[in-house]
Design a protein that fits this description.
about 280 residues; alpha+beta; six-stranded antiparallel sheet; three-stranded antiparallel sheet; globular
């Protein structure tokens, strides 16, 4: 199967570095198409890992999608801030329905050295919301930076430090790193550097209903919430769910087929159809 995907990418002249496949029995195969450094930026595929961290907190009963952001980050709220921030929930953040009128905090495209402050949380919370929370979709990295700060506040440790022992170490990831804001918090939305053969392990966790090699890491309840609500993993077709990232990063899986596919690349985008049948 992976040879077929590799050949398809070559025939389409796609600048894919690595492609990996996995099944529910933990069989992982990787092919190199264009030589590159082995550890790559997942860009927005990182958001799926942040969703998983929120799920771990959900399973511990520490928050739910209905939890208000103000109840977690209340010490950072100011009296003169936009009152719409009082209505924002974790669900709104997960779905990019905070109320923003445009993208914000995209460090992959912005010159972050030009931001007015090195306090990214202050930048975001000082932004006036154009729409009522929960009513308007606006994809933005700011929503997932806020989720990173939610994890840090609830778990009492940074997002990367929280996930590493509970997820990456149990799944035997190799090297990894997560881009941080100037105050030392993982960006949450982007900047997760991992290997392709490790990225697909998250897909294995989801097709196995939250179980990794006989150990439950996530509840089936959270998996169902993610897939039914479209918390980053969204339906594609024929039972496939996927999450893409800038410059052609991709993680997709099919529960019925027990198959996961992931790739790192440098392209404008990678068409799902070359993998999804």
């Amino acid at each position: 199967m992976i040879k077929k995907y590799k050949q398809e990418a070559i025939e389409r002249n796609l600048n894919i570095y690595f492609i990996a496949t996995a099944d529910k029995e933990y069989n992982i195969k990787k092919e190199t198409i264009v030589d590159a450094n082995p550890t790559c930026n997942c860009y927005s595929v990182a958001k799926a890992f942040t969703v998983t961290a929120i799920g771990l907190l959900y399973d511990k009963g520490l928050l739910t999608p209905k939890t208000f952001l103000k109840d977690v980050l209340k010490k950072y709220y100011k009296e003169d801030m936009d009152s719409k921030w009082l209505k924002v929930t974790i669900h709104d953040l997960l779905l990019h329905k905070v109320g923003f009128g445009c993208g914000l905090l995209d460090i992959d495209c912005d010159d972050a050295s030009l931001y007015k402050s090195t306090d990214y949380l202050e930048i975001v919370l000082n932004t006036k919301l154009k729409y009522e929370p929960g009513t308007k979709y606006q994809y933005t990295d700011a929503a997932y930076y806020l989720l990173s700060r939610v994890v840090a506040e609830v778990a009492k440790k940074d997002l990367e430090d929280y996930l590493r022992p509970l997820l990456m170490e149990k799944m035997k990831f190799k090297e990894l790193a997560w881009s941080k804001c100037p105050n030392g918090y993982s960006m949450g939305a982007t900047g997760l550097y991992i290997r392709t053969e490790d990225m697909v392990k998250l897909g294995i966790l989801y097709i196995n209903g939250g179980v990794w090699k006989n150990e439950r890491i996530l509840s089936k309840e959270w998996i169902d919430l993610v897939l039914s609500n479209g918390y980053e993993f969204t339906p594609i077709k024929n039972g496939w769910y996927g999450k893409g990232g800038m410059r052609g990063q991709l993680l997709t899986f099919n529960i019925e087929r027990g198959l996961v596919i992931g790739c790192h690349s440098f392209e404008k985008s990678i068409p799902y159809q070359i993998f999804v049948e």
